[in-house]
Design brief:
Strand content of chain C: under 5%
CATH superfamily of the largest domain in chain A: Cupredoxins -  blue copper proteins
CATH architecture of the largest domain in chain A: Sandwich
CATH architecture of chain C: Up-down Bundle
Chains: A alpha+beta, B mainly alpha, C mainly alpha
CATH superfamily of chain C: Cytochrome c oxidase-like, subunit I domain
Structural class of chain A: alpha+beta
Helix content of chain A: 25-40%
Number of strands of chain C: 0
Radius of gyration of chain A: 28 Å
CATH topology of chain C: Cytochrome C Oxidase, Chain A
Order of helices and strands of chain C: HHHHHHHHHHHHHHHH
CATH class of the largest domain in chain A: Mainly Beta
Strand content of chain A: 15-25%
Shape of chain C: globular
Strand order of the largest sheet of chain A: 3-2-1-5-8
Largest sheet of chain A: 5 strands, mixed
Oligomer: heterotrimer
Shape of chain A: elongated
Number of helices of chain A: 8
CATH class of chain C: Mainly Alpha
Helix content of chain C: 55-70%
Distance between the termini of chain C: 15 Å
Radius of gyration of chain C: 23 Å
Chain lengths: 324, 219, 540
């Protein structure tokens, strides 16, 4: 029954401390339900039993306004309950804060509005955190700009990302699968789209994946690689492929205007060609398209030359075929 | 109104029973107001403490760029003005209007002197570029090694600036007192506004007595 | 049939200027009341826009940008333009001098100035709306707020100015309570609403200056780059959070203490019974006000502060919860052996007990550090504070309006409609916000303009019931206004509910311009229903 309730209230329990936290929740929950029922029962019962019946005369009512016994109970019982809650809350918290020595360390960087993950043996992923199961994973968090917060519901873990300091969080995932990551500190227009995924794999699989990181795309043709990068590098959070404008112009529109002039918000213009695409990815603030806000972050250092070429190639293909 | 007492003094408001209640209420409220002022400056003192704990050496070095002599003079000036303010109240208690006005004028002049010296300090800083935040540009030999010196000047200008604003407001209030006393509205029977403004003025003095060592005498 | 009304504060003195330059605390209270209700409706409209957008994932009605401005303005308007200023400003101003037997507050001119300062500050907030809004959230966290191109400065300037109004009102009330009580009205004979205003005012004068300085530092950071909150200039963004929450946590007590006071008035009167635990309720008001200054860090459990800080803040947070719990039991026990009437004020008071208990209990979940890590910045927090602020304060405020409306305006409203609207508020409120606890537990973050498909069912329930809630509040307030607009007004007499505090026993409805024909002589305590039978002047 507790399992069913846990499933009802909470996302899956994936980290090693999730079930303890859920149990803490249920302790408070049951205590609260009990207190709540006493309150509601008390007020409904008393108000009805002592209601002023129609036609009844107004009378002097009871002088009783005090009871040492009752007042002590009101004080002591909640005090006991909150003491247990407090101690349990701190004990569980200490578990969440003391990182095991053998944890692997992954660097997490939040920026408006995507996540970058840097792995211990090299390699970077965008918006996809890959971790081995049954291994303590320590995340070193920071932000490149404003405050963000890194939240993985199934791990019951969350920590703010600051621009001037590293924060630490850790977890040990017990079940393989793909789970949500959300940004939980307001960071601007794209805050609600700053989601990502954590992929928990078996340790052996993870090792294989980690060693392949960076080399798997070498054989893909450029335009196919570009199609992959479109989602992998989070371009899709701001640019659509179907012509509709989001935070930035649709790739379809850009592709259809290939070779034509595009006007920028300072009145200058430029022809849409390979160079323009390259500079708009590496130095997006130098030419802001008229009618859009200048909010695109630079991908300088986040894309190799080959990856840049791939994106350009992909863009060109959209003119012929707008499906990915 | 059925409760208007024709024998009541003109300054007694109708919702008070008697002058004593009115006076006690004014004094009480004034002290509560002083509490809010203390909390306002307390917030800035916390900012000072935080900044100084992050950059202790820079603070000590940067403070040398301030003119201790002017700071000291200002301290003496302000303390003296508190004395003249107190004497003005003492004089009006003795119904000595002339002396009271004289002391108020003296207070006003000292306050003006304080602001004048502050003006000299500020204008020098403006000239050489020792300004808060983004506007800081002073690169003299005694400052080249400083780490984030604009922070020291930011907190210096904010705190002395807010204090200076209170001095200016005080001057306005004292000017009104001079007018009121001269006109005969304030006498030994009723001088509550002078006493209240006096309390305010002593607070302004007290805040400076904390600011002076924290900015001019560290290290 | 309404008779020719005697001279009262509404009809005397006459003329527009006599209102604009009024020094009468009751008129100033009305001005706060109408401005407050106006801003409440504006904030409520913004909330309905949010809820309708959130009925389905994706940007159906408004874009992300517009949504972010809407949620920020909703919060800032509700908190700074309605709850904090208007509830002490409206009910406090109208009632405080009456309850202590005074002819006015200690400093009526300051009182009027407070109102105009509040209006002036509110203008800046309104300017923000028409000039493109502000999207930082009502909390203005740095570095986003120092870098954002939105109207941060006008809004923070408006809040800074309104802060002065808050401080001056607090000073006025404290001086009035200390110095202007009639002879014989000792502290332990004061109505508990006065104790509540006292606690509120103490918090107002001590906490608001810190808010003022925080807003000033924020504005200076934007203008001058002073470098206190910006790491690029040598500062720390988390320091901002400490400054901000040092005020804003006590601020929530400014928001709830008057509501507690209202409940402490309604329940004894409508149960015709002495209140249970008078001294305890009075002391707990002061201790909540004091302890409230020591818990601000519980808003920052995921900011990376030291483990020691986490422990201390969690510990003290639980201390604040206990006195509040005892109050709830005291209010319930007040009905024991009373004569309870299910009038609209009582319906709101019972609603309050139900809703505020849920709100308070869910605070316990959030105080446990390990659990808060999961729940922080999710809809669980949104549900918690709406239960306490709306289910608590606003429900109590509506109850207070229904309780003192006949006194303030000399008319009785339709009680049947009022009760139905109260029921609508109760049901609509639970329907809107209870699902949000679940949303939060399941991981739905707050301040999201769009969300993942998995959350759509709960969001759609929430939106549906928010419509019911909005309509019910609207009907409740319109029903009140209708009572003095309609032609055949109903006269409630000077004491329709049989209250025992001075505003009921010694003034007419509406009161005389100077409150009392002659200074009241205290004859009994505020809730002495065991000693004196007070007749009701209005029989339903």
């Amino acid at each position: 029954m507790l399992d069913r309730l846990t499933e009802f209230f909470f996302p899956k329990q994936v980290s090693t401390f999730a079930s303890d936290i859920d149990n803490l929740y249920f302790f408070i929950f049951y205590s609260s339900v009990a207190l709540f029922f006493i309150v509601v029962f008390g007020m409904v019962y008393l108000s009805i039993k002592y209601r002023h019946r129609k036609g009844e005369e107004l009378k002097l009512t009871s002088s009783k306004d005090h009871s040492n016994l009752l007042e002590s109970l009101f004080f002591i019982i909640p005090l006991i309950l909150v003491s247990i809650t407090f101690v349990w809350g701190i004990k569980s918290y200490l578990q969440m804060v003391i990182v095991p020595d053998d944890a692997i360390e992954i660097k997490v960087t939040g920026q408006s509005w995507f996540w970058t993950f840097d792995y211990p043996d090299g390699g970077t992923t965008l918006n996809e955190l890959v971790v081995p199961s049954n291994t303590p994973v320590k995340l070193v968090l920071s932000s490149k700009d404003v405050l963000h917060s890194f939240f993985i519901p199934v791990m019951r873990s969350k920590m703010d990302c600051l621009p001037n300091r590293y924060n630490i969080m850790w977890f040990d995932a017990t079940k393989e699968g793909v789970y949500d990551i959300f940004c939980t500190e307001y960071c601007g227009t794209g805050h609600s789209q700053m989601g990502a995924k954590v992929i928990v794999m078996k340790p052996a699989q993870y090792d294989e994946w980690a060693s392949e990181l960076g080399s798997e795309d070498d054989d893909l043709p450029l335009d196919e690689l570009g199609a992959k990068l479109y989602t992998k590098k989070a371009c899709n959070t701001c640019h659509t492929l179907d012509g509709s404008a989001l935070v930035g112009p649709s790739y379809l529109q850009t592709s259809q205007m290939w070779g034509q002039e595009r006007v920028f918000d300072d009145g200058t213009s430029s022809v849409i060609d390979d160079n323009y695409i390259r500079s708009s990815i590496l130095e997006p603030m130098t030419q802001i398209v008229a009618g859009y806000q200048g909010v695109m972050p630079t991908y300088q250092g986040l894309l190799s030359d080959r990856e840049l070429d791939a994106l350009i190639a992909f863009l060109k293909t959209l003119n012929e075929d707008s499906q990915i | 109104m059925s409760d208007h007492n024709p024998n009541a003094p003109s300054h007694l408001k109708h919702y008070f029973h008697d002058v004593n209640q009115q006076y006690e209420t004014s004094k009480f409220a004034m002290w509560a107001f002083i509490l809010t002022e203390v909390l306002t400056f307390a917030g800035l003192f916390v900012a000072y403490i935080v900044y100084r704990s992050w950059y202790p050496d820079m603070f000590v070095d940067a403070h040398k760029l301030l003119d201790v002599n002017k700071g000291l003079t200002n301290t003496v000036v302000l303390i003296t003005s508190s004395l003249t303010m107190a004497l003005a109240i003492w004089a009006i208690q003795k119904n000595n209007k002339k002396l009271s006005v004289l002391m108020l004028v003296a207070t006003f002049v000292f306050a003006l002197a304080f602001l004048g010296i502050k003006y000299l300090e500020y204008s020098h800083k403006f000239e050489v570029g020792q300004l808060p935040g983004l506007y800081y540009s002073y690169m003299g030999p005694d400052a080249a090694h400083l780490n984030n010196p604009h922070i020291f000047f930011s907190i210096y200008f904010i705190m002395t600036g807010l204090h200076g604003l209170h001095v200016a407001i005080g001057m306005g209030l004292i000017a009104w007192l001079i007018y009121s006393t001269q006109k005969g509205n304030l006498t030994s029977e009723y001088y509550t506004p002078m006493e209240m403004i006096g309390i305010f003025w002593h607070l302004v003095d007290l805040i400076w007595i904390y600011l002076f060592p924290l900015f001019y005498l560290i290290g | 049939m309404s008779e020719h009304k005697k001279q009262n504060y509404l009809n005397h003195p006459k003329g527009l200027m006599s209102w604009i330059l009024t020094l009468d605390h009751k008129r100033i209270g009305l001005m706060y009341l109408f401005s407050g209700i106006l801003f409440f409706f504006l904030g409520g409209l913004l909330a309905l826009v949010m809820r309708f957008e959130l009925a389905a994932p994706g940007n159906d009605i408004i874009s992300n940008e517009v949504y972010n401005n809407v949620y920020t303005l909703h919060g800032a308007i509700m908190i700074f333009l309605f709850i904090i200023p208007a509830i002490p400003g409206a009910l406090g101003n109208i009632l405080l001098p009456l309850m202590v037997g005074a002819k006015d507050v200690a400093f009526p001119r300051l009182n009027l100035a407070s109102f105009y300062i509040y209006s002036f500050g509110a203008l800046f907030a309104m300017y923000t709306i028409i000039n493109g809004g502000v999207d930082t959230g009502w909390t203005f966290y740095t570095p986003y707020s120092t870098q954002s191109s939105s109207n941060v400065v006008p809004m923070t300037l408006g809040i800074f100015i309104i802060g002065f109004s808050s401080i001056l009102t607090g000073l006025n009330f404290i001086a009035t309570i200390h110095k202007m009580r009639i002879p014989g009205l000792t502290w332990y004979k004061l109505p508990l609403f006065v104790w509540a205003l006292y606690g509120t005012s103490l918090v107002q004068i001590t906490a608001t200056p810190v808010l003022a300085i925080t807003m000033v530092l924020l504005m200076l950071e934007r203008f001058l780059g002073i470098g206190i909150f910006d790491p690029a200039l040598g500062g720390d963004p988390v320091l901002y959070q400490h400054f901000f929450w040092f005020y804003s946590h006590p601020a929530v007590y400014i928001m709830i203490l008057p509501a507690f006071g209202i409940i402490s008035e309604i329940i004894p009167v409508h149960s015709r019974k002495k209140i249970w635990g008078y001294k305890f309720i009075a002391y707990s008001t002061l201790s909540i006000a004091f302890i409230g200054f020591l818990v601000w860090g519980h808003h920052m459990f995921t900011s990376g502060q030291s483990v020691f800080s986490q422990i201390v803040f969690s510990f003290i947070t639980y201390f604040v919860g206990i006195p509040t719990g005892v109050k709830i039991f005291s209010w319930i026990l007040t009905m024991y052996k009373g004569q309870v009437s299910f009038t609209p004020p009582m319906m709101y008071a019972l609603s309050f007990l139900f809703l505020f208990t849920i709100g308070g209990l869910t605070g316990i979940f959030l105080g446990a550090v390990a659990l808060d890590i999961h729940l922080h910045d999710t809809y669980f927090v949104v549900a918690h504070f709406h239960y306490v602020m709306q289910g608590g304060t606003i429900v109590a405020f509506l109850g207070g309006l229904h309780h003192w409306w006949p006194k303030s305006f000399g008319v009785m409203y339709n009680q049947t409609i009022a009760n139905i609207a109260a029921l609508g508020v109760f049901i609509g409120f639970n329907g809107t916000f209870f699902p949000q606890f679940l949303l939060g537990l399941r991981g739905m973050p707050r301040r999201y303009a769009t969300y993942d498909e998995q959350f759509v069912e709960l969001h759609s329930y929430s939106t549906f019931w928010s419509g019911i809630l909005g309509i019910s509040i609207f009907i409740a307030v319109m029903n009140l206004f209708w009572s003095f607009i309609k032609k055949n007004k109903v006269d409630p007499g000077s004491n329709p509910w049989g209250g025992m505090t001075l505003e009921w026993t010694h003034t007419s409805s509406p009161p005389h311009p100077h409150n009392f024909e002659e200074e009241p002589v205290l004859q009994h305590g505020p809730y002495d229903y065991d000693k004196v039978i007070v007749e009701k002047t209005y029989k339903k």
